[in-house]
Amino acid sequence: MSDKKLSHIDEKGNASMVDVSHKSDTARRASASGLVIFPEAVFRQLEKDGFTSKKGAIIQTAVIAGIQGVKKTADLIPMCHPLMLDKIQVDIVPEFPALKIECRVGCFGKTGVEMEALTGVNVAALTIYDMCKALSHDIRIENIELRSKHGGKNDIEK
């Protein structure tokens, strides 16, 4: 068993937001990725239609939704600190039979941005699902993961 412990639980076992007041501001960045996987025929139809639907431009709408999701992370995840973000980039590219989502987030602050990057991917993926569900409910959202995290105590690179 490791010496690690949950950071959002106080000594009495209650939920608690981490105190970051003692930390120094540093450059923080993180990236996350995920896939929205379609039945092959649905992907081919979307590709033929330029990834547009009756609801509009699927990829661009999902990019904007992902950016909004990043900015709302502290409102959605109870123990996340509100952050002054310096950079948000959401890229969505077709990779048959899927749309691959990548979200990169950066800030200069006391705490990291990995939850923001993961939230951006999730919100973008849910937006794609919402815009395409009329074609099929066999769309899958998979492999959402943190790809990298830099700044703070631990750096991660996958």
Reconstruct the topology from this structure.
Layout lengths: L25 E12 L2 H9 L3 E2 L2 E2 H14 L1 H4 L8 E11 L2 E12 L4 H19 L7 E11 L5 E2 L1
Helix pairs in contact: 2-4
Structural write-up:
This protein has 158 residues and is an alpha+beta fold. The protein has a single domain, classed as Alpha-Beta Plaits (2-Layer Sandwich), CATH 3.30.70.640. Helices cover 29% and strands 33% of the residues. The chain has helices at 40-48, 58-71, 73-76, 114-132, and strands at 26-37, 52-53, 56-57, 85-95, 98-109, 140-150, 156-157. A 5-stranded antiparallel sheet has the order 4-5-1-6-7, with helices on one face. A two-stranded antiparallel ribbon has the order 2-3. A hairpin with a 5-residue loop joins strand 6 and strand 7. It is elongated. The protein starts with 25 loop residues before the first strand and ends with a strand.
Helix and strand pattern? EHEEHHEEHEE
**What's the CATH H-level homologous superfamily?**
Molybdopterin cofactor biosynthesis C (MoaC) domain
List how many beta strands DSSP finds. 7
Number of helices: 4
Number of domains: 1
- The CATH topology is given as Alpha-Beta Plaits
**Distance separating the two termini:** 24 Å
CATH level-two architecture: 2-Layer Sandwich
Radius of gyration, rounded?
Answer: 18 Å
